[in-house]
Amino acid sequence: MTDPQDTTSDRRPGGRTARVRAQVLDAVRAELAESGHEGLTMEGVATRAGVHRATVYRRWRDVAGLLVDVIDAAGEVDWQPPDTGSLRGDLTALNQEIQESLVVRPSLPLALMAASFQSEQAARAQTRLWADRYAQCEILVERAVDRGELPEDTDARSLLIAATAPLYHELVLLRAEPDAQLPKRAAEAAALAAAAGAFAGRNEESP
């Protein structure tokens, strides 16, 4: 069932509609990166995009609608998880991508995280995006199991969270300076724990 408060549409526009959407979403990203959620306005987005503000209001209705569509658009990108031939290599490469997205200034991912605390609709959209990304990355664990690197009953989601969480803890919560070794160190720690069975059997129901 469609959420009546959801301002986005399931259809994927083409032609002029697609161009307008691209212009507007590019403008939203730029406004967010420069001014954060607090500075995001329908008028500012319309001006930056070179689109009449009536068009923006008609399609997205409000700032929450713009945020949801920007987050949904991120999920439309044809992104593929790393495939280096080993679990440690895959997790390290994944962490390096995450770190790069968080340390660039201004950082759009950080701006979207902040915005999600101000908008329930954006928070739901971001939860969907994160869930999809973790689901995509489960292939890293499946390949590692096939290679004999991990126990067969390893819980992929728990392992992926353990491997990536240090990046968000250091860079988002503590606002620490980027550490070039952190992606590899966090990946290796999670891979070692997983190989020892730390994440085995997590999908089984408790007795």
From TrEMBL:
Record keywords, A-Z: DNA-binding, Transcription, Transcription regulation
GO MF assignments: DNA-binding transcription factor activity; transcription cis-regulatory region binding
Residue ranges of DNA binding: 41-60
Pfam families, A to Z: TetR_C_11, TetR_N
Transcription listed as a keyword: yes
Leader peptide range in chain numbering: none
Keyword Isomerase: no
Membrane-crossing segments per the record: none
Superkingdom of this protein's organism: Bacteria
Residue ranges constituting the HTH tetR-type domain according to the UniProt record: 18-78
PANTHER family (alphabetical): HTH-TYPE TRANSCRIPTIONAL REGULATOR RUTR (PTHR30055), TETR-FAMILY TRANSCRIPTIONAL REGULATOR (PTHR30055:SF148)
Name by which UniProt lists this protein: Transcriptional regulator, TetR family
Protein source organism: Streptomyces venezuelae (strain ATCC 10712 / CBS 650.69 / DSM 40230 / JCM 4526 / NBRC 13096 / PD 04745)
Organism placement in taxonomy: Bacteria, Bacillati, Actinomycetota, Actinomycetes, Kitasatosporales
